[in-house]
Design brief:
Elements (H helix, E strand, L loop, with lengths): L1 H21 L11 E5 L2 E2 L3 E3 L5 E2 L1 H13 L3 E5 L2 H9 L5 E2 L7 H4 L3 E2 L4 E3 L1 E6 L8 H6 L3 E5 L3 H6 L6 E5 L2 H9 L5 E5 H10 L1 H4 L2 E4 L6 E3 L2 E2 L4 H16 L2 H8 L12 E2 L2 E2 L1
Parallel strand pairs: 1-5, 1-6, 10-11, 10-12
Antiparallel strand pairs: 2-3, 3-4, 6-15, 7-15, 8-14, 9-12, 9-13, 16-17
Protein name: Putative amino acid ABC transporter, periplasmic binding protein
Main location: other
GO molecular function, one term: ligand-gated monoatomic ion channel activity
Length: 271
């Protein structure tokens, strides 16, 4: 009798453990506060405002994504060169910082559906004449600046004869351009648009010339082993794209023709 009672207790305990493990388990991302990293030197996408607070299109976007997906998060400011290494080593859970979706980056990290399309543009001093391309700068033996480790920096590598200068910050390159220390700056067209809309003193000194040189798509970045988190981010982004939220943020931050909101998203790709 005592032996049978012991068996029933053991079976009961085993059943309770099984039920607690299998019944109604919440997603892992719902149980922790996510760490989201951004490089706040990329106005109007992500920057520190006059109150030293994070602001910008992508700051508003990640907040909308988090609310839609139902997760809590802390947003931290990280230098560009530390974003991807910190993500891979699990210091951060997500990165949102105008990160272009590239195949070589896909080999190490996972990307959401694209939330914005932009491209690279060439900026020169407003009084500059006869320069509308990188070839023109090269012909004049000028120097082109770009932020280190960005798509603009990589783009310049194809111009082996061009004089190049790497910068830690896009804004530092613009300042050197105004001072006449370099001939041009290559960077995201959204960055130039910010100066047009928000810093008249700087924009009076510069102008964007030529065509948009590339077509780039920005995505939120996660680790490859975070499939569940990425799925929730994608579902949230698709909803925000469909209901016009992303378009309204585009209008709020006056991105204009420098950046385009994807019209439709299907299976993680643009139609």
């Amino acid at each position: 009798m005592r032996e049978m009672r012991r068996k029933w207790i053991l079976l009961f305990c085993t059943a309770m453990v099984w039920l607690s493990a299998c019944g109604g388990e919440e997603p892992q991302t719902a149980k922790r506060t996510l760490i989201v990293a951004t490089d706040a030197t990329l106005p109007p996408m992500s920057f520190l405002n006059d109150q030293n607070q994070l602001a910008g299109f992508e700051i508003d976007l990640i907040d909308a994504v988090a609310k839609q997906a139902g997760f809590e998060y802390d947003l931290i400011n990280v230098e560009w060169n530390g974003l991807f290494g910190g993500l891979i080593t699990k210091k951060y859970d997500l990165v949102i910082s105008s990160v272009t979706i590239l195949e070589e980056r896909r080999e190490r990290m996972a990307f959401s559906v694209p939330y914005l399309q932009s491209g690279l543009s060439l900026v020169v001093q407003r009084g500059t004449q006869g320069v509308t391309s990188l070839e023109d700068v090269q012909a004049q033996d000028g120097i082109v600046g770009a932020q280190r480790a960005t798509t603009a920096f990589f783009y310049l590598e194809d111009y082996s004869e061009l004089n190049k200068q790497a910068y830690e910050l896009y804004g530092h390159a613009i300042q050197d351009l105004i001072k006449g220390e370099i001939a041009a700056v290559l960077g995201e067209s959204t960055g130039t648009l910010y100066y047009k809309n928000n810093d008249a003193a700087v924009f009076r000194e510069i102008k964007m010339v030529g065509d948009i040189l590339t077509e780039e798509h920005y995505g939120i970045v996660a680790r490859k082993d975070e499939a569940e988190l990425l799925q929730r981010v994608n579902e949230a982004l698709n909803k925000l794209l469909a209901d016009g939220t992303v378009a309204r943020l585009h209008e709020k931050w006056e991105l204009g023709q420098a950046a385009v909101v994807p019209k439709t998203i299907a299976s993680g790709k643009e139609d």
